[in-house]
Structure prediction request, 474 residues.
Amino acid sequence: MISTFSVKGLGPTTVGIGRVLIASAGVATLGIVLYRAPVWLDAWNIGAVATAVAAAAIVLVLAVGVAVRGKAHAVERVAMEMTLFACALVAAETVLILRAPDRWSDDPTVQRLVAYARAARARGITYDARVPMEVVRDLQAKGMNAVPGYTEASLAESAVSHAVRERGILPLSNVANALVVECNEGIGYLQFHSDELGFNNPPGLAAAGPIDVAVIGESLALGHCVSPATSAVARVRARLPRTADFGIAGSRVLSQVGVFREYVEPLRPAAVVWVVNVNFAEPRHEIEQPILTSYLSDPSFSQNLRERQDEVDSFMREILAPLHEQGDRKLRERLDGASSFPLDRVIKLREVRRAIDFGSATRRPPETPDLSTFERAVDRVTATASQWGGRVIVVVAPNYDISLGRPQDVLRYEAVRESLEDEPVTIVDGTALFAAEPDVLSLYTLRMDNHPSERGHALLGEAMLAAIDSREKP
Prediction:
C-alpha cells in the first residue's frame, strides 16, 4: 500500500465525500471497462476481455461495500490511497510524455515524421522537415516540372472514384517526363525523372523496348526510399541494362495485375519480377473499382493506357495533385500545432497503457488472410507470361514488423509463402533473406519501421539477379 497520512478530525463531511468518491470510482471503473470492451475485443482474446470485465465488477462490489459499510477510518484511508494512486498515474504519464519528442500529437503521421526527425538527428543527418507538396512547390519555383508521386491508395478517396467514373480512365502510373517527388524516411526525399509512361526508368526503355526484365510491385519495387541509383531494381539494371521498373507506390494486387496487362504484356520480357508486399496481397479498396476487377475477370481487358498518357497526366495534375496539396496543407497544420504540451493526452493515460505490456497471452489470435484474389492473380500472370516463354519470379518483400515477429504480419507472410509453393514461379524470400542477417535493423532506413536501407536494397538486388540468372524451372 502507498503510505499515507491521517485525515482524522476533518469530520463527517469528509467521510461522506470519501464514501461518494469510492463508490464513484467503482462505478467509473466498470463503466470504462464496458466502454472499452469492444475495442479490446479487436485486439485481445475473449478470455482476457472477460477477465477485465470480471475484475472491474469485483472492484465495483468492493468499492460499494467500503462506501456503504466501511468504518470512517477505512473510508478515509481508501479514499486517500485512491487519490494518491490517481496522482501517481498522472505523474507517470507526464514523465513518459516529457521523455518523448519535443512535439506531441495523437496523429500517427505526425508521430512518424517526428520520429524520423529525431532518428536522423541522432545519426548526424540533416532532416528535411518539408511535407511533399512544399518540396514540389519549391522545385516548381525553380522552373522544374515537379509533381507529387502517385500512390494507388488515393483510389480510396471518393473524389478519385468519381473522377474515374466521369473520365473513364484509372491511371496506373505517374505523370510522364516529370520530376516525381516521392517519400522521405529521414535521409531526404526520393526524387526521380519519370519516363514517357510515368515510371522510374531511363528514357525510351519501357516505351518501346525490347526489355529483358520487367519489375512490378508497390513502393519497394519503385525504390522507396533510397537514392535512385542504389535501389534493388537499379542494381539489377546495372547488370542487365534492359530492365524496366513498373513499380507504383501503394499498389495492391489488382493494380499490379493491371500494370502487368497494360505495360508489361506488350513487351514480352524473358523474366517478370513481381515484388509482393504480404500486407498488400489482399485487394481491399481495389475491389470497389470495376476497372481493376476487370483485369482479373477478363484476360483481354485493357484501358490502352500506353496510348492514353496525355489523359493520365491530366488526371494526375487536375485530380490527384490538388488532393495531395489539400492533404499536405492539413498535415502542415497538424505539424505546426503539435508543439504545445498535450494536457488532454495526460488525462487519457495512453503512454502509461502502452508502457504496460500484458503480453501475447491477452492478444487476439490474428485472422488468416483471404488470398483467393492473390492466387487468381498469380495464376493469371504466370499463364500469360508462359504464352511467350516468360518466367515469373516472385520476391516476397521483407517487412519491419515481420522482422520483429508481429503475429499478424507473420501470419500473412506464412500464408503468402504457402500459396506460392504450388505456383509455377521462382520464389525469392526477402523475409528469410533479411532474417539470416545478424543485424537485421541495419537493413531498414534509420534502423526503424521504414523501407529497406541501401544495404537492404543491395541484398534484394543480388537475390533478384541470382533468380534471374538461374535456369532451374520453378
Residues 1-10 have pLDDT under 50 and may be disordered.
